[in-house]
């Protein structure tokens, strides 16, 4: 269910759902793929309980740095099926002050994972915004290119986990 203030990215990833879930929910794995290269995630905190923290620090070769990153809040976790988090709230459901750039508007991410058969995962990410202006700002920042790139990096990282096993 989406509406006019949502941005949606859907992919079928060539990796099994358990490894995609591990890559998405383990901070050490998430740091490997969550930023479009050459940007990097240098810090990551993720507490997979409702009210838990979701915080990343992204840096880039152009001097881009989110600082310590505004901590988001995990809202919902269904093992190997769904992860919902928001930048509007911090840990413990405390309202956030919004920052600058990509942290200047609140949004909620609903990420779902379904077994697509043959070792593949149906991956869907929906970014829900409070209004059209925030949606358009996120889109202009490169939502589809950025989130599309990291979906490919997620697939690659999850596949590498199978090779290591």
- Overall mean pLDDT score? 93
CATH superfamily: START domain
CATH class: Alpha Beta
Helix content: 25-40%
Note the beta-strand portion: 35-45%
What CATH architecture label applies?
2-Layer Sandwich
Low-confidence stretches: none
Task: Please write the string of helix (H) and strand (E) elements.
Answer: EHHEEEEEEEEHH
Number of extended strands = 9
Mind describing the biggest β-sheet? 7 strands, antiparallel
User: How large, in whole angstroms, is the Cα Rg?
Assistant: 15 Å
CATH domain topology: Alpha-D-Glucose-1,6-Bisphosphate, Chain A, domain 4
Shape: globular
Distance between the termini: 37 Å
User: How many separate domains make up the residues?
Assistant: 1
The chain-level structural class is alpha+beta
Spatial ordering of strands, largest sheet:
1-9-8-5-4-3-2
Number of helical elements: 4
Organism: Sphingomonas hankyongi
Domain Activator of Hsp90 ATPase homologue 1/2-like C-terminal: 14-157
Family: Belongs to the AHA1 family.
InterPro entries: ASHA1/2-like_C, START-like_dom_sf
């Amino acid at each position: 269910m989406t509406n006019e203030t949502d941005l949606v990215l859907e992919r079928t990833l060539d990796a099994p759902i358990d490894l995609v879930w591990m890559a998405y929910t383990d901070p050490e794995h998430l740091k490997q793929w969550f930023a479009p290269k050459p940007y990097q995630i240098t810090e990551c905190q993720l507490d997979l309980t409702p009210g838990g923290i979701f915080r990343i620090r992204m840096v880039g070769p152009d001097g881009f740095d989110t600082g310590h990153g505004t901590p988001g809040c995990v809202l919902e976790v269904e093992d190997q099926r769904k992860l919902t988090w928001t930048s509007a709230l911090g840990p413990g459901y405390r309202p956030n002050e919004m920052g600058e750039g990509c942290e200047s508007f609140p949004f909620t991410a609903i990420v779902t994972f379904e077994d697509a058969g043959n070792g593949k995962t149906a991956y869907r990410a929906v970014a829900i915004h409070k209004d059209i202006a925030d949606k358009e700002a996120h889109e202009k920042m490169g939502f589809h290119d950025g989130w599309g790139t990291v979906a490919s990096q997620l697939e690659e990282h999850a596949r590498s986990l199978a090779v290591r096993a």
